[in-house]
Amino acid sequence: MLHVVTGGSGSGKSAFAEEMACKYHRQNLDGTLLYIATMIPYGEETKKKIKRHQNLRADKGFQTMECYTELEKNVEQKLGAPDSAGKHISCVLLECMSNLVANEVFREENGVDAANVDVTRQILRGIQALQRVSKHVVIVTNEVFQEPLQSSKEMQHYKKILAEVNCKLGNVADVVTEVVYGIPGTVKTDQRNKMKFQRNDGVKGAGSMRLIIGGSYQGKLEFATKLFPKLRWIDGAVCPLDAVESCEGIYHFHEYVKRWIQSGKDNENIAETMAAQLHERNPDIVIVSDEIGYGLVPVDAFERNYRETTGRICTELAGYACEVYRVICGIGILIKEGRTNEDGTGTGIAGRD
User: Fold this and answer.
1) What digits encode the pLDDT tens for the residues 14-36?
2) Kind and range of the H or E element at 223?
């Protein structure tokens, strides 16, 4: 069993992951309950955070193994191979993937400008090594992909690697859970993921607008092309501004909105106007867009307007759409399904799963 737990900072994901790890351990009391700590104890703030996590898992039966880099090597050296009776660890809780990726990406011998193409593969080999010695593996990771402010080159590189790891883990995981303010929501189980793709065969009809959203680097376009393999796509970052009225699908829609604002076209009531015109002129379009309405409010006036306008446009489009998907760790969750009314408004119901 591979269970991936994701969520924002302070969301309660750690407590939930510990609860699940203890649950899996109770099912296999003949093995060890292991906690793999990946946060380097650097500075007072980090040490306080580590102490808090130690207090959280106190008296729960965890054994702790520190591992900051080279997960596969540490597993082989410290945990060895499965014994003759089978896997000798009942459950491993790795906390957390965002720290492990950061430790690998920013290792001094790597350098942020180096071709770190092996970081993802190296980490995944480490997870596979854990699966060889443990009956259950629970991994905590972070959602850091919905911050609208422009990141440094180094931070963009880190986010891309972490997202790639998250998506690949999401693809092979048995269960993926997102925790929002202490409330766990199931993103994936094997049965649920199959149901999603069976419900939509990619055939469109009149007024069948779809909206696919999610954080950066989450695999939104890959998910969209699986749902609609025959669609012809345009890139909102570079396409002609009028191409959206006739295209079948557009990705980087948030970049398209930015270019539209910069062009000075119809900036008054742009959200309602753009959404209504798009639905009227191209009601079957499939739209893929980043969610950029999270994080700190930008200081720059244009960036503030861009963030809010994109959010309002996507809100309007979600009202017209017959389906809205949100992609997390490469997995699309249907958050609205329904039909389009004669007046062009959507009759949506929340995703049933």
Assistant:
1) 889 999 999 999 987 778 999 99
2) helix 220-227
